[in-house]
Predict the 3D structure of the following.
Amino acid sequence: MYLPSHFEETRAPILHELIRAHPLGVLVGLTSSGLVANHIPFEVDPDPAPFGTLRAHVARANPFWRECAPDVEALAVFRGPDAYVSPAWYPTKRDTGKVVPTWNYAVVHAHGPVRFIEDRVWLRQLVEQLTNRHEAGRREPWRITDAPADYVDRQLGAIVGIEMPISAKPIPICTLRREKRETTPAPIQAPATAAPMMATIVAKSTLTMVM
């Protein structure tokens, strides 16, 4: 992915926060039939440093886990908020008119080797982590133990785990296009009402580079 250095973010906590907020990733791997993409929810573990590990699962019936090339790194893509940026938000539009539209977005690309896991103890732990995270906001969260043990065991046998240590390559997060220093407040403030999620990620990224 083309990424100008002034849009790059490599602080692991910020990258992990985006992944946790938008856990449905696209896992792209190379198989004998070409590139294959799977849309699956992930857990991110900060260990080992510096970038941590991604974990997920796919259906056992999915041929991806049997066909994914073991000697080629896979790519996991997590898309955060995005927003159109109007030239009208920049003072430059009023002063010189020399400004054009753009698009703000936040995205994480994680590269790494993929390992497929069939161990049911490992799988149960992963499923419990995913379930507990996404049920946490409910008044009466569902738990795996709410289902019959033999049923859960059969369901675990129908999935295969994925573990992807994130390699030490830059993992980008692209955010706000910057104009000259005197014009930066407008595009920061305007998305707060037009695109609040984008405004939040921009604020948290604390990117202060000036083009």
Notes: Residues 120-135 form the longest helix (16 residues). Confidence is low (pLDDT under 50) at residues 178-185, 206-211. The chain has eight helices and eight strands.
